[in-house]
Hints:
Radius of gyration: 16 Å
Shape: elongated
Amino acid sequence: MNTIEIKEKFLKKNILCSLFGHKIITTRNVTNHFKEFKCTVCHLELTNDENGKKTFLTPELKEINETLIGFYKKRVHTI
């Protein structure tokens, strides 16, 4: 596949999501309040922010979620 074919497939998926909305599923529970989500059509990754709203999952937020998982597991296992 060349880059033109890849771009066309990506644009078709984005058009579907822009017309009909994303089909979001929960991919991972970080804690009871924070989760990671993914669109099954365009593979957009989202997470909760500190206000509870969904935001794009950036590499920085991925690292923060990994740290939260570590803290949460330590806290749960010590109680």
